[in-house]
Amino acid sequence: MKRVTLSCLALALALLLPLGANADSLTDERVRAFINTLQDAETLEDDFEELNQELPNSEGMAEMPDFSTIFSDSVAQMRGHETYDRMEVIVADHGFDSMEEWGATGDRVFQAWMAIEMEDQHPEMAREMAGVMDEINNNPNLSEAQKEQMRAMMGGATSAMETARQAPEADKRAVRPHMDTLRAVTASDGDY
């Protein structure tokens, strides 16, 4: 998961937004529409920064966000802010019936994306996570409370990995051709 970065929008949403289940498979068209919303939402960068500052716990999170519902949760947290209205226009322009539908689609795209990334890196990721846990457990400079907090965060990462592994094969097939575009769209947050 270290290689995966989120665009300004995705990062802002990650700090805010859960994943809704949908019985239908993702389609190539729906994945493209979702990606296009992310690209268009880059125009709202300042709005998302302002929104992040207004949210409780925006200065640093004590716990890992629920990556299985990251976009759906963000939609819920944006509600009532003018950013929601602006984002709603973008979402509608790309064929989504509602922000909730867009959030659920984003959750599924993100889950499939993470599943593909993990499949590509699974043995290395498992070793890295085990190494980090060993470092936490054996670090004499950390109090037991600090170790417990870090273990909880690692538990969140482990849980996110398990959730991603459950992505439907059809969703992964729909997302796989868009991996490079997703990486490019979401990598721009490192430029700010």
What does this entry look like structurally?
The chain is mainly alpha-helical. The chain has one domain (8-191). The protein contains 9 helices and no strands.
Based on secondary structure, the structural category is mainly alpha
Radius of gyration: 17 Å
Percent range of helical residues: 55-70%
Q: Count up the domains.
A: 1
Oligomer: single chain
Number of separate helices: 9
Largest sheet: none
Strand content: under 5%
Mean pLDDT across the residues is 77
Helix and strand element order: HHHHHHHHH
Low-confidence stretches: 1-23, 58-62
In short:
With 192 residues, the chain is an all-alpha fold.
Topology:
Layout: H1 8-16, H2 28-41, H3 45-54, H4 70-78, H5 82-93, H6 99-138, H7 144-165, H8 169-175, H9 179-186
Helix pairs in contact: 1-3, 1-4, 2-5, 4-6, 6-7, 6-8
Main attributes of the structure:
192 residues, mainly alpha, globular, disordered N terminus
